């Protein structure tokens, strides 16, 4: 069991902006709503493994680059 102080953080917005994609464009590319992308970026929602892999593929990077554990 993970310590309660651990947090899943992400660099999603940074990579999305570098590719000049809006939240809506990324959402359409991975098959979710713009709100889902927004909540993932803001750390409110932890994506499934499948969604994280889809996002990484669209953003042309690895999941470990987008998502990381702090704590």
Protein topology:
Layout (H helix, E strand, L loop, with lengths): L6 E4 L1 H7 L4 H8 L3 H8 L7 H10 L4 H4 E4 L1
Antiparallel strand pairs: 1-2
Short description, anyone?
The chain has 5 helices and 2 strands. It has 71 residues and is mainly alpha-helical.
Q: Describe it for me?
A:
The chain is mainly alpha-helical. It has one domain: lambda repressor-like DNA-binding domains (434 Repressor (Amino-terminal Domain)), CATH 1.10.260.40. 52% of the residues lie in helices and 11% in strands. The protein contains five helices and two strands. A two-stranded antiparallel ribbon has the order 1-2. The model has no long low-confidence stretch (mean pLDDT 94).
Low-confidence segments: none
CATH architecture: Orthogonal Bundle
In the residues, how many domains can be counted?
Answer: 1
Let me know the number of strands: 2
Q: Main beta sheet, described?
A: 2 strands, antiparallel
Element-by-element helix/strand order: EHHHHHE
What is the mean pLDDT?
94
Using only C-alpha atoms, the radius of gyration works out to 12 Å
CATH class category name: Mainly Alpha
Shape: globular
Q: Which quaternary structure do these chains form? A: single chain
Q: Helix/strand/pairing class, anyone? A: mainly alpha
């Amino acid at each position: 069991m993970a310590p309660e102080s651990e947090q899943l953080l992400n660099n999603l917005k940074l990579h999305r902006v570098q590719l000049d994609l809006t939240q809506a464009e990324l959402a359409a590319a991975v098959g979710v709503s713009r709100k889902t992308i927004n909540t993932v970026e803001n750390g409110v929602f932890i994506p499934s493994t499948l969604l994280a892999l889809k996002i990484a593929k669209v953003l042309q990077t690895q999941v470990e680059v987008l998502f990381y554990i702090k704590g």
